[in-house]
Write a structure and sequence with these properties.
Universal_stress_UspA; Rossmann fold; globular; ATP-binding; 5-stranded parallel β-sheet; about 45% helix; alpha/beta; single chain
Length: about 150
C-alpha cells in the first residue's frame, strides 16, 4: 500500500468541490500527509490586438480574476488548515498546470473531481482524465454529483 506524504487538492471551486476537499483531508489524516491546494485559472482570451487601447482592460480583468481566485483558495485552505506556502494559484491549462505543479512539488497523490461525463465530453477529454494519463504520481478522481 502506498504511503502518501504530500497530497494535492486540485480545485475548480465548483459547487461540488467540497466533496473532493473532504476526501483529500480524510486521506491526509489517514496517512499523516501534508495537504496542498491548487487552483488553475484559465487565461482570458485577449481581444483582437487591433484594439490595443482595450488591452490593459483585459490584463486588469485577468489580475482581478487571479486575486479573486487567490482569496477563494485562501478561504478554503484556512478551513482545511493548509498553510500559505502550500497554496498555489496558477494561470494556464488546468490539465498541464496540475501535472506540472505536482511534479515540481513532489506530490504523491493528486485528488481531483470529475463530473464523469459521457459521449462528447469523453471524446474531448476531461481535465481529470488528462491528469490521470499524464501525472507522475497517483491520482484519485472523485465523482462529483448532486448526490454528495
Amino acid at each position: 500500500m502506498a504511503n502518501y506524504r504530500k497530497i494535492l487538492l486540485a480545485t475548480d471551486f465548483s459547487e461540488f468541490s467540497n466533496e473532493t476537499a473532504r476526501r483529500a483531508i480524510a486521506l491526509a489524516n489517514a496517512f499523516g500527509a501534508e495537504m496542498c491546494a491548487l487552483h488553475v485559472q484559465e487565461p482570458m482570451a485577449l481581444l483582437d490586438t487591433g484594439y490595443a487601447d482595450i488591452l490593459p482592460f483585459d490584463l486588469e480583468l485577468t489580475e482581478q480574476m487571479l486575486n479573486a481566485a487567490k482569496a477563494r483558495l485562501e478561504k478554503l485552505a484556512e478551513k482545511l488548515n493548509i498553510p500559505k506556502e502550500r497554496q498555489w494559484v496558477e494561470i494556464g491549462s488546468p490539465k498541464a498546470e496540475i501535472v506540472r505543479v505536482a511534479a515540481e512539488q513532489g506530490i504523491d497523490l493528486i485528488v481531483i473531481g470529475t463530473h464523469g461525463r459521457h459521449g462528447l465530453g469523453v471524446l474531448l477529454g476531461s481535465t481529470a482524465a488528462s491528469v490521470v494519463n499524464h501525472a507522475g504520481c497517483d491520482v484519485l478522481t472523485v465523482r462529483l454529483s448532486r448526490d454528495h
